[in-house]
Amino acid sequence: MSEQPPHLTDTLAGLLRRARGAYSDAIESALRRAGHEDIPRRGTLLLSSLKTHGDAALASLVERLGTSKQAASQLIDTLVSRGYIKRSTDPEDRRRLIISLTEQGHHAAEVINDAIHTVDSRLTSRLGSERMHSLREALDELADLALGRHPSTPASEPEPATGSETDAAADAEPQETTADAAPDKPADVAADTAAESTDDSKAGE
User: For the domain that residue 134 is a member of, what is the CATH number?
Assistant: First the structure.
């Protein structure tokens, strides 16, 4: 029997890493064409989230990014200095800072979300709406595991991960490809739930 191509024998973690590239490549190319090459990797997720859900407090953004408060603060400092977001005081609680998009940030977020929508549409055309819905459900379950939530239905006890699979999961992040950092992946592919301890130290680069 002939050996299967490497991509057919990938672990799930490896497949998620490869699939993540469909979004990161599309986002990076779109931002480059639009002249927004200075956005750090996690910055694309933050901008997209603010565009979709509106202004947010720092604590809310920390939860959305799935990172530490220190790393989120560094990322916000970087995006403020580059003109994509701004801070303001909550009129109802002056101890609380609100993060919002600038005009430049709105434009960059539109570019990011358009790129995400393009990939979503292409994938839906290949899978069909029913399989796409099943894919989202499966990735939601994976995201729940990352957040420590209990599954909605009982499941058998999983076998302990092997050392190689644990290493693959820990490595399920693409390397930065721009001078600052490569754009991050959207939540749609649930790859943003992967552990990113190295990003915490690099978020403000």
Answer: 1.10.10.10
